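> example.struct
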């Protein structure tokens, strides 16, 4: 693990050529010793719809990873997002920073599950479309919600299939004239209602 990457070199992290040479050396180490190498890097304060685009410096850092994990804060919620080069991205995982009553053993704890995260996005999309005076394009929704394009597409497909949204040439609008009496979104009934929070052992 190289943590943080910026402390291990004196190159210009905004230079594509400098970073490319550095990452080429890291890739050579990986292949020579048949090892996984973890690079820890910081992101800019400005949030992006795609977390990897917020990494400081050259975009080569985003493109380099076979699997990338991003810990971000959205309002009061910590989110762990994961990208894979050769596999679909899972839903972001909400986390909470917690401690024992005496203040010891501070750690990250799973605060919910992927299904609840997906449901929350669908609710946000539906609320935004219902309160808009005009149809909203996918680009406009993505900009206002600051969400990953793949996740937004899945939410739109689900809402359209459930006849809660209607897609028009101008964009997405609420299906039907009276949206106040439409059935609210609910979690999958098969999910345990009072699931105990899971923990991941990441001591700080």
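> example.seq
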């Amino acid at each position: 693990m190289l943590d943080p990457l910026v402390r291990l070199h004196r190159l210009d992290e905004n230079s594509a050529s400098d970073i490319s040479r550095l990452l080429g050396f890291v890739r050579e180490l990986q292949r020579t010793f048949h090892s996984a190498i973890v690079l820890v890097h910081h992101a800019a304060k400005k949030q992006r719809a795609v977390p990897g685009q917020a990494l400081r410096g050259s975009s080569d850092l985003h493109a380099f990873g076979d699997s990338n994990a991003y810990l971000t804060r959205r309002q009061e919620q910590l989110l762990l997002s994961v990208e894979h080069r050769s596999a679909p991205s899972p839903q972001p995982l909400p986390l909470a920073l917690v401690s024992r009553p005496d203040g010891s053993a501070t750690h990250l704890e799973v605060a919910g599950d992927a299904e609840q995260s997906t449901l929350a996005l669908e609710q946000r999309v539906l609320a935004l479309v219902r309160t808009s005076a005009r149809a909203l394009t996918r680009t406009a929704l993505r900009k206002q919600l600051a969400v990953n394009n793949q996740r937004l597409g899945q939410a739109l497909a689900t809402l359209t299939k459930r006849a809660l949204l209607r897609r028009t040439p101008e964009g997405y609008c609420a299906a039907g004239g009276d949206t106040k009496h439409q059935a609210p979104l609910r979690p999958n009934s098969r999910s345990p209602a009072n699931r105990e929070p899971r923990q991941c052992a990441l001591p700080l």
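> remarks
DSSP finds five helices and seven strands in the chain.
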